[in-house]
Design a protein that fits this description.
Blueprint: H1 3-12, E1 25-26, H2 29-38, E2 46-50, H3 56-64, E3 67-72, H4 75-84, E4 91-95, H5 98-104, E5 112-117, H6 123-131, E6 139-145, H7 146-152, H8 163-169, E7 172-180, E8 185-186, E9 193-200, H9 210-221, H10 229-233, H11 239-248, H12 262-272
Parallel strand pairs: 2-3, 2-5, 3-4, 5-6
Antiparallel strand pairs: 1-8, 6-9, 7-9
Helix pairs in contact: 2-3, 5-6, 6-8, 9-12, 11-12
Bound molecules: S-adenosylmethionine.
Length: 282
């Protein structure tokens, strides 16, 4: 589906795009193939696509994978997609708000791949929700604002490093990122875009309560970037427990969260998971 196909389809249905739904459609064949290629599709793959729009990526996903489940919020686009892929029983279309749907869906995603040009306004929470799922996908190939992708792939000690980086990093590592130029979208968005490939880390046995302690420690630790992490975590757990956990993880008690690595946060969370909490979880 190229730009003329898209314009024709939109005009034939008198469809006006909705900016608040992030309706910037990808029409550049090279970029679409690059994104689908990053998913390394196999005939047995099950793919989750959030926000299929008019279906330019869906088409490539269906060509390479076993089945595609797509979640689209806009009922007008749901109609278009139903017509476009009518008769392909490997295509499952869900008309829903993807964020709400993912939160309610207690699916085992461990054999799935996520490939999506995400709606930018809700892209980060959707990514976090998928990354923190109990049984997360094998691989996620997500296109978002370049600034958000920069935060997902950030290194400790940089301004971009923060909550999004660490929540995504608990179970995933970023294998690669690449830019997707504005002119590849219709209409061209106001911001630059990029795509990131995230691969699930090898089995990570965290133990009971560790993942939630990790999420709380990350959110609390970055509550105020300029403050020492010790003070911020001591609002959630007893100060002595936080001191012992930080020392055990090799983190200086004067350190700020932006210099603490994912591995150190995991170690801190392991040590705090059993500690009584003040109930002030962020
Ligand atoms: N994948 C298509 C493409 O690459 O051309 C469309 C991507 S467009 C950036 C985002 C799509 O997400 C739009 O189709 C929009 O209607 C849909 N969308 C926006 N908010 C959504 C939500 N909360 N849940 C599901 N879909 C949503």
């Amino acid at each position: 589906m190229n730009l003329s196909d898209m314009r024709r389809l939109l005009a034939s249905r008198d469809l006006q795009l909705t900016k608040s739904l992030g309706q910037n459609f990808l029409h550049d064949g090279n970029q679409l193939r690059r994104i689908a290629g990053a998913a390394a599709l196999e005939g047995t793959d099950r793919i989750l696509e959030i926000g299929p729009g008019l279906g330019p990526l869906t088409e490539l996903l269906l060509a390479g994978a076993g089945e595609v489940t797509a979640v689209e919020k806009d009922g007008r686009l749901v109609e278009v997609l139903q017509e476009r892929f009518l008769g392909d029983d490997r295509f499952h279309l869900i008309h829903a708000d993807a964020l709400e749907w993912i939160r309610e869906e207690e699916r085992d995603w461990s054999e799935w791949k996520v490939v999506s040009n995400l709606p930018y306004s809700v892209g980060s929470p959707i990514l976090v929700e998928l990354a923190l799922a109990e049984r997360p996908a094998r691989r996620m190939v997500v296109t978002l604002q370049a600034e958000v992708i920069g935060r997902v792939a950030a290194r400790p000690g940089t301004a971009e490093y923060g909550v999004l980086t660490l929540l995504a990093a608990l179970r995933f590592s970023v294998s690669s990122t690449f830019k997707v130029p504005r002119e590849c979208f219709f209409p061209a968005p106001d911001v630059e875009s990029a795509c990131a490939v995230l691969d699930r880390r090898p089995a990570l046995e965290l133990g009971p309560g560790v993942a939630s302690a990790y999420v709380s420690a990350v959110k609390a630790g970055f509550g105020q970037r300029r403050k020492m992490m010790l003070k911020l975590l001591a609002e959630v757990w007893p100060r002595e427990a936080v001191e012992a956990a930080m020392t055990g993880a090799g983190v200086a008690l004067t350190e700020r969260a932006e210099r603490v690595s994912r591995e150190q946060f995991v170690e801190i969370a392991r040590r705090l998971a059993g500690a009584p909490s003040t109930g002030n979880h962020p």
